[in-house]
Write a structure and sequence with these properties.
By secondary structure, this protein is mainly α. The protein has a single domain (3-168), classed as Four Helix Bundle (Hemerythrin (Met), subunit A). It has helices at residues 3-31, 42-62, 69-93, 121-135, 140-165, and strands spanning 35-36, 102-103. A two-stranded antiparallel sheet has the order 1-2. Helix 2 runs antiparallel to helix 5 (140-165), helix 3 packs antiparallel against helix 4 (121-135) and helix 4 (121-135) runs antiparallel to helix 5 (140-165). The longest helix is centred in the N-terminal third of the chain and has 29 residues, at 3-31. The chain is elongated and about 55 Å long. The N and C termini lie far apart (55 Å). The mean pLDDT is 94.
Length: 178
């Protein structure tokens, strides 16, 4: 088993950990009256992320892609940074973090952690990882394909989240610049 295969398997294990956290957090949200918003895109998101991980395993082997240190090592740093950012997001949102768009009525928006600086930092982590993980072992077709499809999917996902969270956003003061 190559070190790259071990890396991808570790990312897969991390995904299962995320799903366990999401399941627990979903129960927390639903116990407080939470409901799912815009579930229609979720199967496409699962399929795309599954395809990313499969592409990372298959493309380097099937296309005989080499490990290129000048590309692979910086890409690995980005993968690790994206994991750090993802778990910072999970920590900042606490029981409100989920892989689904679950809204608990009456809760204010989270503005701590990376949400202090970015509106959707978790999707920055997803985009970075989706580009960098395949490039660790020169799987450029997977990197480009995932990145393009992910950009389209994130357009839908971010719109869905923004719509769902709009009631929690404070309205600007009268006469304030928008």
């Amino acid at each position: 088993m190559t070190p790259y295969t071990v890396l991808v398997l570790l990312v897969i294990a991390e995904r299962f950990a995320e799903l366990a956290v999401a399941r627990r957090n979903g129960a927390w949200s639903r116990a407080r009256g939470g409901f799912e918003h815009g579930a229609g895109h979720y199967p496409a998101m699962v399929a795309l992320h599954t395809a990313l991980l499969l592409g990372c395993l298959v493309e380097p082997w099937a296309a005989d892609r080499p490990f290129l240190p000048l590309l692979g090592w910086p890409a690995l740093v980005l993968v690790l940074a994206s994991q750090g950012l993802r778990w910072w997001c999970i920590s900042a949102l606490g029981p409100r973090w989920n892989t689904r768009v679950l809204i608990v009525p009456g809760l204010a928006l989270i503005t701590r952690g990376p949400y202090r600086y970015l509106r959707h930092p978790n999707y920055l982590a997803v985009a970075l990882e989706g580009m960098a993980l395949p490039l660790v072992h020169t799987a450029w077709v997977t990197a480009v394909g995932f990145s393009l499809l992910n950009a389209a999917l994130l357009t839908v996902r971010i719109r869905c989240e923004d719509d769902a969270l709009a009631p929690a956003r404070p309205l600007p003061a009268p006469g304030a610049a928008r």
